[in-house]
Amino acid sequence: MNAPLSVRKTAAALDATRIRKDFPILDLKVNGKPLVFLDNAASSQMPRQVMDRWARYQSSQHANIHRAVHYLSETATAEYEAARRKLQAFINAREEREVIFTSGTTESINLVAHAWGRKFLSAGDEIILTTLEHHSNIVPWQMVADEKGAKIRVVPIFDNGELDLDAYEKLFNSRTRIACFTHVSNALGTINPVREMVAIARKQGVVTLVDGAQAAPHLTVDVQALDCDFYAFSGHKLCGPTGIGVLYGKAALLEAMQPFKGGGDMILSVTFEKTTYAPIPAKFEAGTPPIAAAITLGAAVDYLTDIGMDRIAAHETDLLDYATTEVTRLPGVRIIGTAEKKAAVLSFAVEGVHPHDVGTLLNEDGVAIRTGHHCAQPVMQRFKVPATCRASFAFYNTLAEVDALVASIRRVQKVFG
């Protein structure tokens, strides 16, 4: 597991009690009890400062962008492109044009699968995925593989939920074209050795795509240090709105790819004989983009940056370590996914109780967790379970909320005998 609290060196402690005042929804009562929101891997909550930015844009800056010369359009355009620069800094991309706004991680991965894969994959080529992948990093590649006659190879995992890195390296051969893997497992919380995995692929001349949906909210992400070719993540897991995400791509690769969608703003000129595409990033942002959502995501990144991603990671690690210790003490509760390095996710099963029943009874206590296969059915198949209970943490959660989770699990066990 993660380093013990006593030996781990962290930044200045995060004041979760003060931070919680920024989140009005955390004052909510559910079934007459304080909300304990532990479903952050599905979607985090939004602080007041970010909500206010959304409202300010809608009330005083809203217009379509890039084409008009009037005040509101120029203002909205400036704010939209400023948000792109904020995201560039957040992940340390080399150039702002390497940041593409999408509707979320799923669209970002689909963009690569179709705009890169359909152009560069051929019959007999191979795609490497891992057992840990979310369906959004499996299904798009199956679609393209079926169309192109390509083959998918899968990296196995050990019983603790860690990838078999030796097996990963052995999958590479002369037909391998791309390796796609999650940075942090949404189902288990496993932190993959992404930098090492990218380096292995780089030696083979293989393109890499990293699903960062569960990493960007919890870890400092530096795409230049990782040296990955593509990195995808979503705004709604980053204290931002739904319907907005980011695809980072190295400029040379993005320039070589075909557009994913056609329409307005992604062109330089159009005739019925020929269309000339706009340079990146516009080439991949057809139509009216999610302007308000992008600007609001920029505000969310400002908020997280002000707190400090290192402080966020340290606090969430404390929560995860404490929760792991306390849940492990419960007889008849099995933790699924015990990798040495994990982030913010605790998946478990209660003996003799279906996960949906666990979730229903926890909800009676105001405790919100997620139950099901978490869009990661290969993981469930690997551990021979139909579903798991997943508690996932954010920086505004507290140790007292972990205690509430544990107490509620005890009540579940009592109800089911």
**CATH top level of the largest domain?**
Alpha Beta
* Distance linking N and C termini: 31 Å
- The structural domain count equals 2
Strand order of the largest sheet: 4-10-9-8-7-5-6
What is the fold named in CATH at topology level of the largest domain?
Answer: Aspartate Aminotransferase, domain 2
In terms of structural class, how would the helical and strand content be classed? alpha/beta
Fourth-tier CATH superfamily name of the largest domain:
Type I PLP-dependent aspartate aminotransferase-like (Major domain)
How many extended strands? 17
Strand content: 15-25%
Shape summary: globular
- Backbone CA Rg: 22 Å
Question: What is the typical, i.e. mean, pLDDT?
Answer: 95
Sheet with the most strands? 7 strands, mixed
How helix-rich are the residues, as a percent range?
25-40%
Return the CATH architecture of the largest domain: 3-Layer(aba) Sandwich
Helix count, DSSP H or I runs of 4 or more residues: 14
Uncertain segments are: 3-11
Walk me through what this model shows:
The protein is α/β, with parallel strands linked by helices and 417 residues long. It has 2 domains: 123 residues, Aspartate Aminotransferase, domain 1 (Alpha-Beta Complex); 256 residues, Aspartate Aminotransferase, domain 2. Helices cover 39% and strands 16% of the residues. It contains 14 helices and 17 strands. The chain has a 7-stranded mixed β-sheet, with helices on both faces. Strand 5, helix 5 and strand 6 form a beta-alpha-beta unit. Helix 2 runs antiparallel to helix 10 and helix 12 packs across helix 14. The longest helix is centred in the first third of the chain and has 21 residues. The radius of gyration is 22 Å and the shape is globular. The N terminus is likely disordered.
